[in-house]
Protein 1
Amino acid sequence: MTDDKTSESSIPPSESKAESETPSPMLASRTICAQIIAQWINTGDFPDRMLPSESKERPLMQEIVYGVSRWMRLLETIITQLVPRDPDPLTKAYLLVGLYQIFLMDNIPPHAAANETVEASKVDLDQARVRFLNGVLRNSLRKSEEIQKILHEASLAVRSSHPDFLVDRWTEEFGEESTAAICDWNNKRPPVILRVNHHRTTTKDYTKMLAEDGIEVELHPADSKNRFLILPAGISIPDLPGYTEGLFTIQDPATILAVDMLDLKHGLSVLDACAAPGGKTFACAEQMHNKGTIIALDRHDDRIAQLRENARRMHYSCVKVHKADATKKIGLDSIEDYGPFDRILLDVPCSNTGVLRRRPDARWRVTDERLSRLTGVQARMLNACSRLLAPDGIIVYSTCSLEPEENEQQIERWLSLNPNFKLDSQTFNIPPDSNTDGAFVARLVRNDK
């Protein structure tokens, strides 16, 4: 689960905007990308939250916004070869948009990328800054070979566009070769993967349904139960057959590890304490054949709304959505009447270092201070939720982190303070060897005897 926050600020267009001209959709999309990136630079808000949901140009905008946030360090290295100091945030955002297309996109001719970025910038920038942008992008084209050589000779952290903090940690933990492989994995565009809802259909039947719509899919090799399908690029999820009928959810196979470790049966009471957007919740409901009770919690209004909408689409009557703060005992008072719970799933807020290919901007937020804050939140959730567990019940603790403080060290520390629990089993997926997102899962069993 990601440690999200809500974005409320925005970057207003400059007064130089040409009101008499309507830019083409392609130019307008680059303008929007630059405005999103400028806001991200200024505020640290989540860039994926700012992308317009309804736009024919969304694939291009997503490619550019995610690409710039993923390759930010490498792009900034290029900028240092072209200008003596950073321009203002909005001009820099257009510069990043142009450089990303020139150096890292292979489906747009470099000169065309420069031209279109300069034209798009005229919505926001005055003439002096437009001339500056044009000059820098033209210079990057002339110096392309020299810049490529500098990047090739740079450190792993620079050429793979990761912070030194993470590369140093991973090198110590996993070794140089594995760290290079993790960085390469993080920079690959992730495929869209769905999990077939076996409560309503079979993988064979749903694959046939997709084929009848002209959609060819592949079984994901990491799941022996054939529940996950890899979709071709460019597919609109809401347009897939069976979307409104709840025949599938969008999930990476790594997410099912925690659900499988719960050892679910018909009629159990289950608490999913950090449920949004609901993929693990609905996998639990499927394994329970919609018989029992699942209390799905989140504390953020926007994520609760998303969870409720997804719950409606999946048509599981056993799922009950509640807003609550699972980090505080008093925050869970509203659901105590549903307990004690036979199973508790704690998919805790974490650094997301196991899913950086899907959340590329998260790599720039990981610090010692943030890890310390997150491990405190995780421990508080374990403390608050464990008191709601039935005797002989099971807690499954999971993260999408590669950091030991959030994983095995967290569990060891918590168990040392709670001797009435024991570690039953744990697993750790490390990409790319796992061929899935990174994930840590530990099963804790309560035994008061």
Note: Residues 25-154 form a domain with the N-utilizing Substance Protein B Homolog; Chain A fold (CATH 1.10.940.10).
Protein 2
Amino acid sequence: MNDVLILTFDGKDAAIKDMVYRYSLAYVSGNLERAKTVAFNGHEELLSLLGRHTFSTVVAARDIPCETALLLKGAGLVLVVFGCREDLVSIADIVIDPLIAKSEKYLVGTRFLLPSVLDVVDNFEIASLLDMPVDDLREEVDCNQAVDDIVEVCQLYHKLTWDSDFFGINVGFISCFRLTSNIESHISKFIRREKIDLVEYLCNCHDRESVLVSERSGYSFVDIRLTFERHLQRPVAVDLLPGFTVRKARPDDVPELKRIGTDIYKYSRYYFDTNFDRAKVVEFYQGWITKAIEGRFDDFAYIICDSDQPVGFCTVKKFGRRSAQFNLVGLDEAHAGRGLAQVMIEKSLDLLRKEGISHVEVVTQGRNYGAQRMYQRCGFVTKKTELWYHKWFR
């Protein structure tokens, strides 16, 4: 596990930007395992602290002095900074700024704005900084995963315990979205320490530095991950064919749904990466379906039935205050070509809207053209494109 130093400074600035950055820093301090929070009291004391502890990462707000940032980088630490400051961006490995609308390099926008921040700061001023209506601001923040994403970024990497146990190998995951040479050097130490067999990395396709570092460091491209989204302001009109219904799956549906889901892995990165045993990959996806229906991985699954016989499914995971995501989607091959997958998705959207969900995402593979076209027919639009990389050590 990565040991993290949260470094605070006695800043007096009451500007709303600095309030947001310090609030975010305090959130990380309270929610990141193995983090130690220290108030800065001079470089001599800081160097003494670094000599007594094995920190890999330092997280600070943008009020960190430039000379302190340089000292930390000179010590080989990964530097994560909340708030964009011109003289810091060339020093920091990762910049998180929820008050910047767009950037191809930094982690910015409402995706990284904690929902609880809106309870303590002026929403209209935040909306003005992001050049968006305040209602849109609240809607986007209600639908984000910042409470998890911010902690994941500051953690940098971790071992995937469930995946490791299932596949019988040690699987690591780079969770910080960015990859620099400095971060990669710490990942190498983590790999040796934890005897990692496989590292997985999900990379922002627009971040040129991360892509280049991945390629130089021996990571292999295995998949394009496309995320689509749809906002549910109005009821979703859908016409079910006679004899067909859409409902939540029950435990007694599991055997049939596992049969239907036997081949859904064929577009996945696990199929493309031939280091994985195909039989284990099928078992992985069938287990996912089972866990979704039991509420142990995803929260539940909707299924489309022909005379109450399941012929298709989509698993659902709720996140944020009013958002959900479709994860696994499958349809019995005997019922393909009739538009049933689209009907199932549209009816599921309407059922989610009735449960108070206003925003839905779905993830699919860059190779799965049929799924992409189907989601577009259902009113989804592209939200982001990411690249999956694998690096093996056996």
Note: Residues 229 and 361 are 4 Å apart (CA to CA).
Protein 3
Amino acid sequence: MKQPMYETATDWNRLNSPPAGSSAPRRSRSGLTLLLSLAALFSVGNAPAAADWPQFRGDTALSGVSSEILAEDLTPIWTFDADDAIESTAAIADGAVFFGTLAGTFYSLNLEDGTLRWQYAAELEIKSSPSVREGVVFFGDEGGIFHAVDAKTGVAKWTFETDSGIVSSANFAGDLVIFGSYDQYLYALDRRKGTLQWKVPSDGYLHATPAVAGNHALIAGCDGFFRKVDLRDGDEVGKLEIGSYVASSMAVDDNLAFFGTFGNEVVAVDWDSEKLVWRYSHPTTDFPFYSSAAVTDDVVVIGGRDKLVHALDPESGETLWTFSTRARVDSSPVITGDRVYVVSGNGDLLALDLTDGSELWRYEIAVSVTASPAIGEGRLVIGTDDGAVLAFAEHKQPQEPTSAEEGS
């Protein structure tokens, strides 16, 4: 996997942050009425089906929360062998699974049984997780080509060329498709035509997927800055120095955006005022955060390279619980109901109790995993570093034959 370059974090005392142990007050939902009204201008008619997982982190806020409630006991129901390692997280939409491989092949499978629907050849490795909107699937490749492909047929609708590799996934705001590139630009294209609407420069690689909040795109990158961009014209209207490289995508809940850094911290930023609300670091471990967070009103969950899953209070950043895994956690967790699903780098797929972090279910995939789980239509789907895709669903006990069957 292409990793962002790492440098020592700058002195956090230079940042405009609250004193240690304190946190800025959180805005009420009612205070966001105007911003949410503006957001509606970009989102009406484009909401994904509730049962789908149509893009990285599930929705445009990159919340990492699924509306699906999976069975307590899951079992593999099918596997599919692709042509190379899978680092991108699958998308699930309209009964199909979409993902790319490091061989540059993009696949669509039937969600029901894992059979191949179609495959498509990109220029180079695909690390960008796909996003699906209104019958079109969008993703980038390491050659810097951004692809729009018909989700039913696998035929290219258009492509757009940037000047470097694309690991970022696409996000959506009305007719815009938005993504970052390693050429250090944030792009917005007309998602139907592929024409450039605007692009915004940064001073480092843009590895993460931009979040959409209100009428803004939010992103942090390898230059160590949080940026807020007006979706209407691409103007950068807010900027905050974070102080270290950022590879994870931010999860947005109300006025707060949460993300991990290569400075070994998780931060909460008020995206409306561009203020740092809190920062968290584990008291004894000192490792970067590559995983993207999942967030509800009550908890922020993120994986760490310290082999821990961290659950934090969204208001204060205080630790609610941690769970120790057997390998680092670069994969991003998914919350569904009262559980959070997470996979560690050695392939341990876990369901943890969202309240206290206790282990509820485990499946040992037994190979390394970089991708994150996708949950949709009653199934959990994940790709592995050895090129397999696994789908999990409810474990059903074999039924005893009825008397009519016995006598037939």
Note: The chain has one domain: 61-395.
